Write a sequence for this structure.
C-alpha cells in the first residue's frame, strides 16, 4: 500500500504499489517520502472526488500498541508499535 497526496498535500485514498509505480513512471507523480512510502500527484484533484473518510483505531497494550486505519468496515492498513521493555 502506498500513501497518496494531492498537489496541496491533502491525503487521498492509498493505492496499490503497482499503480504508484505506473504513476511515477509516467511522470504523473513524484516521491514525497520514503518511510512510509508516499507519493504526491503533480495534477490537482477535485475536492468532490475525495469524499472518503478514514478512522484510526488504537489498541494500547503494555508491550505492544496496535494501530489500524479503517475505511468504513474495511481495514486499509495495520501496524504494531513495540514498546521498549529494557528500561
Amino acid at each position: 500500500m502506498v500513501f497518496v497526496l494531492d498537489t496541496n498535500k491533502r491525503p487521498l485514498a492509498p493505492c496499490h504499489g503497482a499503480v504508484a509505480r505506473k504513476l511515477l513512471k509516467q511522470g504523473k507523480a513524484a516521491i514525497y517520502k520514503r518511510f512510509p512510502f508516499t507519493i504526491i500527484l503533480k495534477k490537482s484533484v477535485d475536492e468532490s472526488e475525495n469524499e472518503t473518510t478514514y478512522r484510526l483505531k488504537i489498541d494500547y497494550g503494555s508491550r505492544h500498541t496496535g494501530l489500524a486505519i479503517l475505511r468504513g468496515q474495511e481495514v486499509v492498513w495495520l501496524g504494531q508499535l513495540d514498546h521498549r521493555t529494557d528500561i
